[in-house]
Amino acid sequence: MELDESPEHAALRELSEETGLKGQVDMLLGVSTNPSAQYHTVLMVGYLVKSYSGNLTAGDDANDVKFFHFDELPDIAFNSHASFIRMYYALYSD
Fold first, then answer.
1. Fewer Cβ in 10 A, N or C end of the chain?
2. Are the C-beta atoms of 87 and 48 separated by less than 8 Å?
3. How does pLDDT run across 39-84, given as a tens digit for each residue?
4. How distant, in Å, are the alpha carbons of 4, 42, 89 from that of 15?
5. What single-letter DSSP state applies at residue 71?
6. What sign does the dihedral 14-16-20-23 (CA atoms) show?
């Protein structure tokens, strides 16, 4: 988050920077923490963004970006991210 930036705005800014997509926050999925060697603990906030537009493009710190079906997800690097995916799936797996 930048100074004077709301968590929702930070999430949408990061979405744009990392994927090239513009979106709208639908709801808060949850809050989690992740251990960090540099910061000890990082607070993670997960938002659901279902309404988005633009062309999916990898940001400057990624080699590639793709959409995956839930049953075909690659390994998820961070436990907090995997937790947000499970939260989404629990809400929408009917």
1. C
2. no
3. 999 899 999 999 999 999 999 888 899 999 888 999 998 888 899 9
4. 18, 18, 20
5. G
6. positive
Write out pLDDT tens, residues 2-51: 999 999 999 999 999 999 999 999 999 999 888 889 999 989 999 999 99
Domain boundaries along the sequence of the chain = 7-92
Q: φ and ψ at 20, to 5 degrees?
A: 80, 5
Residue 29: enclosing H or E segment and its boundaries? strand 27-36
In the block, residue with structure tokens 């839930």: 70
Q: In 10 A of CB 93, how many CB atoms?
A: 8
Q: Which two tokens stand for residue 90?
A: 């629990």
Would you give the distance in Å from CA 10 to the centre of its chain? 11
